[in-house]
């Protein structure tokens, strides 16, 4: 065995596998993006339920309202918030136990007999782990408090005033317990690390006091009520609380203004829900019909069916498994996880957290560098085998690739939705997610969205399909049947995203992508499917994010 093989198989590959496993297990403690997305969708539904169209709508309004929102929007939103609250409580309990365990371990570690020189590296990362766990704990505490603020408003709007008052009262008690030095009016933090979370807890506690006063009998109005409501509540929750405040204050002009703004936001929310719900639903319906047709055709026609087209035809692969490992370990993993991040960290580029455009540009540049590095490794690895057999890396414009890509997108929708529902039950809101999704959700900047679109809907489909479907899947057919190569390449495609919660849904999507490619034998088809999938996700996130 050559030195190159020894280094590749016994040094680089184990390192890549260990780092990938570490990243996957690290994502287990991170919140799943789907949970946040469901709350955003609930919030936009709450805005939409306040919609009151003019008399010209006639008797069609109730039917339209029920079709879009269901017959019990407030009850459904309350249930969603209660489920989200339960999930956060579970994760909070885990975070508290983990922090206690880390503190216990740190107390048992030996201390050096004399101070270490400044800058001396240490192997103990317990302090960093404690800091991260403590930060995660504070974020969960803040999220739980925000959920209770909103849950109380939902309960009050359904006439369950006593339940709402109890929710806010328990929130105040919990905040006092978590922040014993916190006074309802004044807080003097001891360090910069505790300033921000304590201040936020104080404001949320003050907002809970304001809401309790507004819905009490008799009501109590605090001097800073409007300021706290506007600062700590959003969307439907803010307008609902302000309406309650202005009614009690008998401020008719302010009441009319907030009600008009609520109606405008509600009309926009209805339109957004219609777009978000109608297009994917119709596509999923078409996809279900396509799946039923293909399966029925396969049962009736056997190998002559469209479903079986090219199903058992492998690629002629001139290289062996070492080349596959080389491309993915050196090109994909080390370029994406080690080399490019290291280079970017050494370049003094300012990346302000609050500037979403700069963040979007940085994400695009990082992705292009990773893609360029990986594809360069791929090119130089297989260069000596040129010219490749005709079926490799095939792009044909005059073909049915568009129908394959569009049909595959429709078929993937119902499959991935079902798998995602199972996945949600399995991970219970944990498992991490792609950070790009959160950035796209919270960004309402058209320029930033355009940059995110370039990354997710153009660069990602081209690079990932070229690597996973163009190279990996056909290479695997040297050792596996076509269906086995589809599954293995789909699993590796999912694992490469380094989020435990995304493995099952992305495996399902990868299987559809592999199926479309093996049947069409044209890389344009899975690239189109991939682009449509990411574009639909980004559009939904943009519409949802603008409603909170």
Task: Describe the model.
Helix content is 74%, strand content 0%. It has 548 residues and is mainly α. Helix 10 (252-301) packs antiparallel against helix 18 (524-545). The longest helix has 50 residues, at 252-301. It is globular. The termini are far apart.
How much helix, percentage-wise, in residues?
A: over 70%
Total helices: the number is: 18
Structural class: mainly alpha
Mean pLDDT: 82
Query: How far apart lie the N and C ends?
Result: 60 Å
Radius of gyration: 27 Å
Please trace the helix and strand order, writing H or E for each element.
HHHHHHHHHHHHHHHHHH
Total beta-strand segments: 0
Low-confidence region ranges = 111-125, 181-197
Net shape: globular
How would you characterize the largest beta sheet? none
Beta content comes to under 5%
Q: Which terms summarize this structure?
A:
548 residues, mainly alpha, 0% strand
SSE blueprint:
Blueprint (H helix, E strand, L loop, with lengths): L2 H24 L6 H17 L10 H10 L3 H36 L17 H32 L3 H18 L13 H23 L10 H8 L2 H15 L2 H50 L19 H26 L9 H27 L18 H27 L7 H8 L3 H31 L5 H14 L7 H18 L3 H22 L3
Helix pairs in contact: 1-11, 2-4, 2-10, 4-5, 5-6, 5-7, 6-7, 7-8, 8-9, 9-10, 10-13, 10-18, 11-12, 12-15, 13-17, 13-18, 14-18, 15-16, 15-18, 16-17, 17-18
What would a concise description of this structure say?
The protein has helices spanning 3-26, 33-49, 60-69, 73-108, 126-157, 161-178, 192-214, 225-232, 235-249, 252-301, 321-346, 356-382, 401-427, 435-442, 446-476, 482-495, 503-520, 524-545. The chain has 548 residues and is an all-alpha fold.
């Amino acid at each position: 065995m050559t030195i190159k093989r020894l280094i590749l198989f016994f040094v680089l590959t184990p390192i890549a596998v260990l780092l990938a496993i570490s990243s996957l297990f690290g994502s287990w403690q991170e919140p799943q993006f789907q949970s946040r997305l469901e709350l955003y969708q609930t919030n936009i539904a709450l805005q939409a339920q306040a919609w009151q169209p003019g008399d010209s709508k006639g008797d069609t309004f109730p039917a339209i309202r029920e079709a879009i929102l269901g017959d019990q929007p407030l009850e459904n939103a309350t249930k969603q918030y209660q489920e989200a609250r339960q999930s956060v409580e579970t994760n909070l309990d885990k975070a508290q136990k983990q922090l206690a365990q880390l503190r216990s371990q740190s107390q048992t570690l030996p201390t050096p007999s004399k101070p270490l020189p400044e800058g001396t590296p240490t192997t103990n990362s317990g302090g960093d782990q404690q800091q991260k766990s403590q930060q995660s704990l504070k974020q969960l505490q803040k999220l739980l408090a925000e959920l209770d603020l909103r849950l109380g408003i939902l309960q009050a709007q359904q006439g369950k005033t006593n339940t709402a008052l109890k929710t806010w009262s328990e929130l105040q008690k919990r905040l006092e317990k978590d922040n014993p030095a916190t006074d309802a009016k004044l807080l003097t933090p001891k360090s910069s690390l505790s300033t921000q979370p304590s201040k936020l807890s104080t404001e949320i506690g003050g907002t809970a006091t304001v809401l309790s006063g507004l819905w009490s009998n008799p009501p109590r109005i605090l001097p800073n009520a409007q300021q706290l409501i506007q600062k700590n509540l959003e969307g439907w929750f803010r307008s609902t609380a302000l309406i309650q405040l202005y009614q009690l204050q008998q401020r008719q002009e302010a009441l009319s203004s907030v009600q008009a703004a609520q109606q405008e936001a509600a009309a926009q929310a209805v339109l957004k829900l219609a777009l978000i719900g109608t297009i994917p639903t119709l596509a999923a319906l078409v996809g279900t019909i396509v799946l039923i047709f293909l399966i029925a055709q396969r049962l009736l026609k056997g190998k002559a069916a469209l479903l079986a087209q090219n199903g058992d035809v492998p690629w002629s692969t001139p290289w062996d498994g070492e080349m596959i490992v080389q491309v993915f370990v050196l090109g994909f993993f080390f370029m994406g996880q080690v080399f490019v991040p290291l280079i970017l960290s050494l370049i003094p580029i300012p990346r302000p957290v609050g500037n979403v455009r700069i963040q979007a540009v940085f994400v695009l540049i990082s992705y292009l560098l990773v893609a360029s590095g990986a594809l360069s490794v791929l090119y130089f690895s297989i260069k000596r085998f040129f010219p490749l057999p005709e079926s490799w890396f095939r792009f044909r414009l005059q073909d049915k690739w568009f129908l394959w890509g569009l049909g595959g997108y429709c078929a993937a929708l119902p499959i991935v939705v079902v798998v995602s529902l199972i996945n949600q039950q399995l991970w219970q809101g944990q498992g991490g997610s792609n950070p790009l999704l959160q950035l796209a959700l919270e960004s309402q900047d058209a320029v930033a969205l355009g940059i995110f679109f370039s990354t997710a809907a153009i660069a990602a489909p081209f690079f990932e399909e070229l690597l996973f479907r163009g190279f990996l899947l056909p290479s695997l057919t040297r050792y596996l049947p076509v269906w086995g190569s589809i599954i293995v390449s789909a699993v590796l495609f999912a694992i490469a995203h380094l989020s435990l919660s995304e493995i099952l849904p992305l495996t399902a999507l990868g299987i559809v992508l592999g199926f479309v490619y093996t049947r069409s034998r044209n890389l344009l088809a899975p690239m189109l499917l991939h682009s449509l999938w990411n574009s639909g996700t980004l559009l939904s996130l943009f519409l949802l994010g603008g409603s909170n």
